[in-house]
Amino acid sequence: AQKITQTQPGMFVQEKEAVTLDCTYDTSDQSYGLFWYKQPSSGEMIFLIYQGSYDEQNATEGRYSLNFQKARKSANLVISASQLGDSAMYFCAMRERFTDKLIFGTGTRLQVFP
Amino acid sequence: DAGVTQSPTHLIKTRGQQVTLRCSPKSGHDTVSWYQQALGQGPQFIFQYYEEEERQRGNFPDRFSGHQFPNYSSELNVNALLLGDSALYLCASSLGRGDLSGNTIYFGEGSWLTVV
Question: Quick check: helix, strand or coil at residue B86?
């Protein structure tokens, strides 16, 4: 069965610093997709970045980049130059093959302080 | 281009009652998935609708049912509400192809359901 593991319940980072949020996954499929979402206290799940298993380069979206290490089955999110508005829950998720069903991790609460 | 919209945003129901939540997918998307997110947890997949049929279902009882309309919008119905049904209900829209060409999955703002 597919599984996502996020081992950091909470992380603190100072404004303007970079932070890495960890995500490991387990799947027997060769083809899969990995997502990161941000969830503020309002509840909306905001798409941040996507990485396909066959993508040769790590995905980047503005201040977000995904450190994809396929052999280690890890897909860590790197946020550069943290901002106070980055304080939120962050979820890593994997799409099941041939469907759009997402399997989520338990999330990491990021707090950015001045 | 409107994103995923959900209604209502907040509602309070009594145990035993029934509730209907609504979702309109992002323009161009034909697949709608529903998730339940209990406090402090990650979202759990309830079911997915494509071409007006339930295509896949998670581990939820039959009290949870849904529907998809020809315009791709969807409803989630929960009967005989229990206190444990209190959660954030999220709707996700996508192209439903499950391919790996960057088919992004977008979520709405969610519906907060409180059962008292």
Answer: coil
**Chain B: residue nearest A107 by CA?**
B42
Q: Which of B6, B107, B109, B112 to mutate to test the interface with A (most CBs of A within 10 A)?
A: B107
Tell me the one-letter amino acid at A98: F
Nearest to B100 among A52, A99, A107 (CB): A52
Buried/exposed B85-94: b ≥16 CB within 10 Å, e otherwise: bbbbbbbbbb
- Interface residue B92 vs chain A (CB under 8 A): yes
Residue A64, beta-bridge partner list: A61, A79
pLDDT given for residue A100 in this prediction: 87
Q: What is the pLDDT of residues A41-83, one digit of tens each?
A: 999 999 999 999 888 899 999 999 999 999 999 999 999 999 9
Is the distance from CB of A26 to CB of A13 less than 8 angstroms?
Answer: no
Which portions of chain B are predicted below pLDDT 50? none
| Dihedrals phi, psi of B85, to nearest 5 degrees | -80, -5
The alpha-carbon gap from B105 to the nearest alpha carbon of chain A, in Å, equals: 8
Mean predicted confidence (pLDDT) in A93-102: 87
In degrees and rounded to multiples of 5, residue B79 shows phi and psi of -100, 160
Q: How far apart are CA A109 and CA A82, in angstroms?
A: 14
